[in-house]
Amino acid sequence: MSKISLIIEREYLTRVRKKSFIIMSILGPILFAAMMVIPAWLASLEDDETKIIAVIDETGLYSEQISDTPLLKFEFLNNQNEQEVRQNFSESGYYAFLVISDNLLEKPDAISLYSDSQITMDVKDHVRRSLIQYLKESKLTSYDISGLDKIIDDLENIDLKISTVKIGDDGTEKQSSAELTMIISMAFAFISYMFIFIYGAQVMRGVMEEKTSRIVEVIVSSVKPFQLMMGKIIGLALVALTQILLWVVLTMLIVTGVKSVFFNDSPLPDASRPQTELLQNLENSDQVTTPTSKELQFNNIMEMIKSLEPGKTLLLFLFYFFGGYLLYSALFAAIGGAIDHESDQQQFMLPITIPIIIALYVAMMTFRNPGSEIAFWFSIIPLTSPIVMMARVPFEVPLWELLLSMFLLVAGFIFTTWLAGKIYRTGILMYGKKVDYKEIWKWIRYSD
Amino acid sequence: MAFLEARGIVKRFVNHLALDKVDIAIPQNSIYGLLGPNGAGKTTLIRIINRITGPDEGTLLVNGHELKSSDIRDFGYLPEERGLYKKMKVGEQAIYLARLKGLSRKDAMKRLKYWFEKFEIQAWWDKKVEELSKGMAQKVQFIVTVLHEPSLLIFDEPFSGFDPVNAALLKNEILKLKERGATIIFSTHNMASVEELCDHITLINNGKSMLEGPTEEVRRKFSQHLVKIDFSGNAQAVKKILNEQFSLHRLEAIDNHYTAEVKTGEDQSLNHVLQSIMPKCHIHSCQELLPSMNDIFIQVVNQKDLSTQNQKS
Predict the structure, then answer these.
(1) Same domain (yes/no): B202, B137
(2) Which parts of the chain span the membrane according to its record (chain A) (predicted)?
(3) Which residues neighbour B5 within 8 Å (Cβ) at sequence distance 6 or greater?
(4) Residue B156's domain is classified under what CATH number?
(5) N or C end of chain A, less CB within 10 A?
């Protein structure tokens, strides 16, 4: 057993000390942190800029009907005509000017926005919304119905707030968010997919390196081929785990570091801002403006994350992640042992990549309908369960399905490592032979 | 008693018989030559001895008991297909391989220091293997093979890739290892080195052991009964005698100095030849001519080929 630990030690240390590993470990968190921080930073940049827009209302019907916002100011110029404004536009300091040339109820296209730069959507939308509101009101007024103002007020006050609540087995109610669950489910599925592929391929390349550099014969005179294969697989699993851990820790460090330097005044962790906005949308409460209600939102998110049982989910993630990794990397090791040249790998890679890719597709459908028959079957079959089941877990999976799937996954990787061990054992010492499936079938049938 | 004994080893691959009831007995503290053409089954036999693969039939005995996996720790194997991790540093790699053989890190360091100084390659310790030349890498590999002081060493083509100077250095080291009590299996095509080094040989062809025994005995067995005599004197008379009583193969003359190669009969020896020509000439030197291992190798392998052809026709 101490020999296996020696092999694991070598695999781990040589890989962790590689430049590519160090670069990936640093670059990854910077990228993740940038993905969280930059949108917040950009948003904060926009806040500073106030746009002033001149309005030339030739009809005189719409004066002061477009309200100002903190970022948009409207100046109604009664004494100037379009020509003057247009000529002096560059010196005027206006962001844009709006020309209304006729009654908009009769001619909806008698309104134009001019600017020397591209006019942003929010300006156009604001103008449109304000005027449509006014036009609707004036149209209603023109019907001359008594008590109209009150009716309109009453209509305005009609609102709906739908909260999604999940009822636990014990009857307790938990706040839940379908969208958040969806995102987490996709993240799990995708991380599993990515690491199985990247590290599985690394196992294969490692085996090929030993085979083509011919060191394998020296090593198998000291250790059993199966020990060598398992040592490599476990060593690489630890490398993967280190990488994930480094990414999580470094990303958190960078985000908090950047936040404390640039966003001191922010009442909220900036990283959660996009999620807050997302939640605002999904809870139909788009009127949130004050910091207090933002904090409320933030607490809501934490509440929802708790409702997903992070401890249990994380344990399941680790289980499925390693189960899937072990299952596939054994197969990758077998391929690496069987082939001589990089160019031969294509035909053997295909049967392995197909189930992984199918699993990712099913996982993407899963978050729309986690209880569907297809999601059920693919989360039970060991080849696809590591990815599909992780996509289902945030939506609560019946215990028996979970246990069945876990049991089959364990059985699955015991089977693939056994199978791979047989192929590997013969393959690594076989040089210069064109290998096909028929040949591999013979190796599997060798007794010893 | 034989240090390592293989009895009736059979190994079948799907389409051919790699080893067909091979018996070998390797005496303690000897250098044992494992000869044979390419594809004869030498590497398969070596892998079976190393327990890299198992035989289909037959047994292997070490010091009289059946070969166990714990015995392998006491073996050192230098495969024909050499290889080291290219991206790993020389020193680090040597320590890793030594630890796989059961040495502690401290012991490995101490012994490596000794060998690196001996081969004057201390400067390579922190180099990556890919920076070394082929010969340099082979030296490192040799050190790694002998580092744990195994009692059985298996060298598969140890001299390939070495220049004459380093080959001599290596030969010297192999002989020293034997002096220290190691038993050595030596697989090669280089017949000159077999004559120089090996005490015993086995010749394997097509998975069968064709020839076995101490090197001298084998050569004597294949003797063509040739003797070589240097003489001066009455060449005509000597020539006549040699032609009549024996069979003269060759007679060369440099001035008044002659060299004759003579084939004697089965029951005759060098003595007979000397006795008959001594009165007629002055003898400077004489020698029994034994066939080279190279000749024996070619003869045995071709015989076998011939007999298989006969079987087919």
Answers:
(1) yes
(2) 21-42, 180-201, 233-258, 314-336, 348-368, 402-421
(3) B24, B25, B26, B60, B61
(4) 3.40.50.300
(5) N
